[in-house]
């Protein structure tokens, strides 16, 4: 009777897990559809605003025809404010929120990695004739100036999207390095070396073979600053290590390219425990 009851509980737990997964998938699909709807609405509003600007620009003072390519500063400002309001609704579903201020708009970019919330960064923009960054909390090593120079005046949505990619990738790299130090300190030999941007990590860790321990040296380079996985991986062992460890180093190198750093180490540990 006990085993039958346990089987019944396991079946119920499995059924509940399946239903929860289906619910989460439906919620994700709904969020994507909502984001798409908001994006289409924004495009519609932008087209309407452009038409309004053309109509206003064609009729100057006392019915004199003016240059349609030169709308008034007020009309441009009104169009920018309207576009920003619509844009705030779109980005709310992607980790970017914002609110209008007296002189422009203030954005908050939230970062996360694999469902874990990490940090938030703020960006205060002035929406005058030319959009300007008034204040921000973006780290100095994030290429904010270059991103702004490329997108801020022509495409604010693209500017925020690229900046968010940089911040989330940095947060993900830092999170992985922190997890490695916190959860696998017994395997790390010495100190994990990393720069401010966390796009270069160097460390040593121990690998056992035939009752002996050999250090592996690792160098991870993240050439794509919008990515949380390395583009270049070098794993090497000492000259006196057995030849079989060369294959292990190659396998570890491949895993570092595909899997988050702390998950790769978890895989190493599980494999070694199963061998033992």
TrEMBL record:
<dbReference type="GO" id="GO:0031511">
    <property type="term" value="C:Mis6-Sim4 complex"/>
</dbReference>
<dbReference type="GO" id="GO:0005634">
    <property type="term" value="C:nucleus"/>
</dbReference>
<protein>
    <recommendedName>
        <fullName>Centromere protein O</fullName>
    </recommendedName>
</protein>
<keyword id="KW-0539">Nucleus</keyword>
<comment type="similarity">
    <text>Belongs to the CENP-O/MCM21 family.</text>
</comment>
<feature type="coiled-coil region">
    <location>
        <begin position="6"/>
        <end position="57"/>
    </location>
</feature>
<keyword id="KW-0137">Centromere</keyword>
<dbReference type="InterPro" id="IPR018464">
    <property type="entry name" value="CENP-O"/>
</dbReference>
<keyword id="KW-0158">Chromosome</keyword>
<keyword id="KW-0175">Coiled coil</keyword>
<dbReference type="Pfam" id="PF09496">
    <property type="entry name" value="CENP-O"/>
</dbReference>
């Amino acid at each position: 009777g006990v085993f039958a009851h346990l089987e019944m509980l396991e079946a119920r737990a499995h059924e509940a897990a399946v239903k929860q997964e289906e619910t989460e998938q439906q919620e994700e699909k709904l969020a994507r559809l909502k984001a798409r709807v908001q994006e289409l609405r924004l495009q519609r509003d932008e087209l309407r605003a452009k038409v309004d600007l053309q109509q206003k620009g064609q009729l100057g003072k006392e019915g004199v025809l003016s240059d349609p390519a030169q709308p008034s500063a007020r009309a441009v400002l009104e169009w920018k404010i309207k576009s920003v309001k619509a844009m705030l609704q779109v980005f709310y579903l992607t980790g970017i929120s914002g609110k209008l201020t007296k002189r422009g708009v203030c954005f908050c970019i939230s970062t996360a990695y694999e469902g874990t919330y990490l940090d938030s960064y703020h960006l205060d923009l002035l929406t005058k004739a030319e959009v300007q960054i008034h204040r921000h909390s973006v780290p100095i090593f994030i290429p904010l100036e270059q991103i702004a120079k490329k997108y801020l005046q022509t495409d604010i949505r693209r500017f925020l999207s690229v900046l968010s990619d940089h911040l989330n990738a940095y947060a993900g790299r830092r999170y992985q390095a922190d997890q490695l130090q916190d959860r696998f300190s017994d395997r790390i030999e010495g100190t994990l070396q990393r720069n401010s941007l966390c796009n270069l990590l160097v460390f040593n860790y121990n690998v056992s073979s035939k009752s002996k321990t050999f250090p592996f040296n690792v160098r991870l380079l993240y050439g794509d600053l919008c990515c949380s996985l390395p583009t270049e991986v070098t794993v090497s062992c000492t000259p006196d290590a057995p030849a079989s460890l060369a294959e292990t180093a190659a396998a570890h190198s491949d895993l570092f390219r595909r899997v988050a750093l702390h998950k790769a180490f978890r895989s190493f540990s599980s494999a070694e425990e199963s061998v033992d």
